[in-house]
Structure formats: C-alpha cells, structure tokens
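Input record (one chain):
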Amino acid sequence: MTAIEFNQQLVTLEKNLERFAYSLTANQDDARDLVQETFLKALTYRKQFTDQSNLKAWTFTILKNTFINNYRKAVKQNTTFDNTKDLYFLNKSEESKAEKPDSRISLKEITRKVESLEDEFRIPFQMHTSGYKYKEIAQEMNLNIGTVKSRIFFSRKKLMKSLEDYNPGKS
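The corresponding structure, as predicted from the sequence alone:
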C-alpha cells in the first residue's frame, strides 16, 4: 500500500475513531485530541503496518492503547509520595480533628438509614462501600455478579429516596 492510499484510508476512519474516542473519554475535546494523537502515531509507525492486516483494527488498537497509556500517566501524576517519618503529610487532616455538629448528625442519619435496609441489600452495599469489588462480593455471598450489582444499585436508590428530605445545608 502506498503512502497516499494509506493516508486516504486513514482519513476515512476519522468519524468512527472520533465516536470510539468519545465513548472512552466522554469529552468531545479530549476525543478529538485522542484521534489526532492516534493519527500521528499511525503515520509515524506506518512502516509497521502490513498490507495483509486490517487498517481499521490496527488504528483502533492504537487509539485504545493511547487512551490507556494517557490514563495511566494521569493517575501516576496524581499520586502523592510521602517520604516523611510516619507518613506525616498523608495522615495529616486538612481540617481540624473536631467533628462539626452537622457532619456528626449526617453520618448518624446515613448510618441509621443504611442499617434499616433489608439484609439482602445492606450487606452487599456495606461490603462495596468497604472496598470489596463486585466479584469478591458475589463470591462471598454466593450470588451472580449481576445480582450483586443490582442490589447495590437498588440500595443506593433506596438511600437517596429515604434521605431526599435531609439536606445538611439547610438551616
């Protein structure tokens, strides 16, 4: 395939690439940037593309891998390293240690509402908020993963409904 044919076929993929990029980023500007970066990499590494392979699949793979690499880079940049003795800065609270009166009430109210859920909803919800993954909850409770997800979803819905009148900002 000549360079001109390659470029023409690459340009015809732009709309499909933009849709896929938008599905990954959920932001139109980020999606366009991702497509441009994909085009740059595809043109840079054109020699690695073989005529027998699928250009669309090859380009979509570049886009997906670029997105994943950018995401990992962003996560790594937001990671804080604390080399102080006893991790002083990570353990230091931004606000004072004293609880504010309204936060204590809201925590008690939310806890009470969570505790009032039926066991079949409360247990998966509490496990999920404690850091368990859906798969771990499903294994622990001997349930299908879809059942676990729906129970957590319905728990959230029930809690939002039961707490809709509660607004800590009200005077």
